[in-house]
Design a protein that fits this description.
The complex is a heterodimer. Chain A is an alpha+beta fold. Helices cover 22% and strands 33% of the residues of chain A. Classes of the chains: A alpha+beta, B alpha+beta.
């Protein structure tokens, strides 16, 4: 990035740390973010076999307070907020009236408030949307900490070994998709056993001013464990291998949670929520285009936007793709295709520079870590 | 990594080593470093006639597809067989085992190729 490209971008509290580590910085969600340090594949390996540290401070952190929060949130989203246990974290999707995905998010239920984390790229639409939805309600309030609070994720099989000794709460005993308030490296934090890599690990929400000392402490303590800083490039490979959707790819305003492979998160038993009627109709007709996972036969990588063919007919397009070191080093992709092209085992062709490359529909996720627990 | 003195360079970040009427071609260390981890290289076919600066293949990294432009014109006489199985060789050794193809050069080598010193200036001001 040159100076004029960086000038308009926001910086996270860890910007100087990334530059000092030699990161390549790119614009993402309005922030200058590290896409890689040493190399995407080496960082991927650190996360799968040891631990990786990610700066996710570009993601928007909102706090919701008040007795009205659960019902209010349940009316805007597909998953259940009201049934969350104290200190539980849960994936959710805000929907539009047509049943499309407005954003995919995480809710964290804290003792006196809720933490809501939305995609950086969607913050510009989500913050006004949430404010409008809360207008006139005396039983809840919203506060944005976007840009002022930091988020450091520590992900990988050695994450517990690295993080637990730095915390004043027993995070080793913390269940997957639960959280706690405490201190990490002396800094007040929300410590959550969540992540976006398919590995065990933690997400540490701290004040911006505490971020750099914590980052350095994690690097120092993590060094002997083989931990390494990891950028957004590695994060995208990791999440795709783990079958996790990325907004703008597997979910969009015109890609519903059902189409995006997130039917598990849609709780039709809820009496009412934005887009429910449209989603019920989609579910019952079951004719919608949908996300499927494919493994390519050859070495030629697919890319987002490439055409997908079945029996000579175009049936959709690639939405995400990567070389997948944890999937036998094969090329994998998600595709958004007609229903008939999404059945497991279907042989598809992906058009790469005018030639069709063989691919086969497989079950998602592509990768599941050994001894993985179910998520909440 | 220093750009070897005995090579010629294109503004598209390819190098050519000219020995008699044969040119060995690859991408520069600067190029491989900019691309990041290389996962696939698509080279011209042996026997194919290529024009200087024509797009004759692609290099794909984890994140991006980039075109390959030939710094020289002529007939492709050999491709590096290593790169099909091990494209990361370009990352490890762009000027050595990561070479891409050899061309029997026809006509004069492109007059706009740069010396190592001039290429160094190009990439340090980029």
């Amino acid at each position: 990035m040159n100076a004029s490209e960086t000038a308009s971008l926001a910086r996270t509290a860890l910007y100087d740390e990334h530059v000092a580590l030699g990161a390549r910085m790119v614009p993402f969600g309005g922030f200058a973010m590290p896409v890689q340090y040493g190399g995407i594949l080496a960082e991927h390996d650190a996360v799968r076999t040891r631990a990786g540290l990610f700066d996710l401070s570009h993601m928007a952190q909102y706090e919701l307070r008040g007795a009205g929060v659960p019902d209010w949130a349940d009316a805007l989203t597909v998953n259940e907020v009201g049934t969350m246990k104290p200190l539980q974290a849960r994936y959710n999707i805000f929907t539009n009236d047509a049943g499309g995905s407005h954003d995919d998010v995480l809710f964290y239920r804290l003792p006196d408030r809720w933490l809501l984390v939305v995609n950086a790229a969607n913050a510009a639409k989500m913050w006004p949307y949430l404010q409008a939805a809360a207008a006139g309600r005396s039983d809840l309030s919203l506060q944005s900490h976007h840009g002022s609070r930091a988020l450091i994720a520590v992900q990988g099989p050695r994450a517990v070994e690295l993080v637990a000794p730095l915390c004043d709460v027993d995070v080793a005993a913390m269940k997957y998709y639960f959280c706690a308030e405490g201190r990490v490296g002396g800094a007040p934090a929300v410590i959550a056993r969540t992540g976006y890599t398919g590995e065990d690990g933690f997400e540490l929400f701290v004040e911006g001013i505490d971020a750099a000392p914590l980052w350095r402490l994690l690097l120092e303590r993590g060094g002997p464990l083989g931990a390494a800083p990891a950028g957004l490039g590695a994060r995208d490979v990791l999440r795709l291998e783990a079958g996790m959707p990325l907004y703008g790819h597997e979910l969009e305003e015109d890609i519903s949670p059902l189409a995006g492979g997130q039917a598990w998160a849609v709780k039709f038993r809820k009496p009412e929520f934005v887009g429910k009627a449209a989603l019920v109709a989609q579910r019952d007709a079951d004719t919608f285009d949908r996300i499927a996972g494919v493994v390519l036969a050859g070495r030629v990588p697919a890319r987002g936007g490439y055409g997908v063919f079945l029996d000579g007919e175009r049936v959709g397009e690639v939405r995400s793709a990567t070389l997948a070191p944890s999937v036998d080093n094969r090329n994998v992709a998600t595709v958004l295709v007609r229903k008939r092209a999404a059945a497991l085992g279907t042989p598809l062709g992906i058009e790469v520079r005018g030639a069709l490359q063989e691919a086969t529909v497989v079950a998602l996720p592509f990768y599941r870590r050994p001894n993985s627990r179910k998520d909440g | 990594m220093a750009n070897p003195e005995n090579l010629l360079y294109s503004k598209d970040h390819e190098w050519a080593k000219i020995e008699g009427d044969t040119a060995t071609v690859g991408i520069t260390d600067y190029a491989q470093n900019s691309l990041g981890d290389i996962v696939y290289v698509e080279l011209p076919r042996v026997g194919q006639t290529i024009a200087p600066h024509a797009s004759i293949g692609v290099v794909e990294s984890v994140k991006a597809v980039s075109e390959l432009f030939s710094p020289v014109g002529g007939e492709v006489v050999e491709i590096n067989p290593l790169l099909e199985k091990d494209p990361a060789a370009v990352n490890r050794d762009a000027f050595g085992e990561g070479w891409m193809y050899r061309v029997k050069v026809s006509g004069d080598p492109a007059p706009d190729l740069l010396s190592a010193a001039d290429y160094e200036k190009l990439v340090t001001t980029a």
